[in-house]
Amino acid sequence: MLKSDCFYLGKIVSKYSFKGEVLIKLDTDEPGEYENLESVFISLGNNLVPFFIKKSQLHKSTLLRVRFEEIADESDADRVMGSEIYLPLTMLPKLSGDKFYFHEIIGFTLLDSVHGDIGVVESVNDMTSQALFEAVKDDKQLLIPINDEIITKVDRENKTIHVTTPVGLVDLYLD
User: Fold this and answer.
1) Domain boundary among 63, 91, 119
2) String of b and e for 13-33 (b: at least 16 CB within 10 Å)?
3) What distance in Å separates the CA atoms of residue 64 and residue 61, rounded to the nearest whole number?
4) Residue-averaged pLDDT of the chain
5) pTM
6) pLDDT interval class at 28 (50, 70, 90)
7) Are 111 and 133 in the same domain?
C-alpha cells in the first residue's frame, strides 16, 4: 500500500500497558468512527505495514487505546512509538455539499465571482494557521484562504469550486 493511496489517521503517542497496548492520537473530528477498526497501516521506515487490531476503545476524546495482534509487550510497543497511522482512502466517509477532503479537490478550477477562472488547485497548504488553496494561473501561484465565507459552492461534477475572494486579493497575484 502506498501513502498516496491512504490518509493520515493519527500517531502512536504513548504506551498504555505492559501488555503492549498503545495510545493513538487521532487526527479527526469524528474519533468514534474509528473505534472498531480491524486493521491499520503503520508507517515504519519507508513502508506502510499492516497491523491487525485485537481490541480498541476510545480513551479521553481523541485518543484510541489499541491492542495489536503483533505487539505482545512493552519492547514490541517501543518499536512503533511515534509512528504514523494510515488507512486506505476508500475508508473515508463520503462528503457532500460544500464539504471536501483536501486530496479530492486537487485539479479543481477556482471560479471567483468577480474574476472568473483564477486557477487550478495544485495543492492545499494546511501547515499555516489557516488552510490555503495553492492554485496556479498563467504560471502565477495564488494562495486563497479556505473558509466558509469565501467558498460559495463545490461542484464535484464539473470539478470547480466557486469562491468570492476578498476585494484586492486576486489582484495582488494577477496584476
Assistant:
1) 91
2) eebeeeebbbbbebeeeebee
3) 8
4) 93
5) 0.72
6) confident
7) yes
Distance CA 155, CA 4 (A): 24
The CA distance from 74 to 66, in Å, is 13
CATH number at residue 19: 2.40.30.60
The stretch 69-94 carries a mean pLDDT of 93
- What are the residues facing 10 on neighbouring strands? 26, 85
Structural domains in the chain (count):
2
- The helix (run of H) or strand (run of E) holding residue 166 is none
- Rounded-to-integer distance, Cα 81 and Cα 26, Å: 14
- Domain that includes residue 60, residue range: 3-91
- Calculate what percentage of the chain has a pLDDT beyond 90: 75
Task: Kindly state whether residue 96 falls inside one of the protein's structural domains.
Answer: no
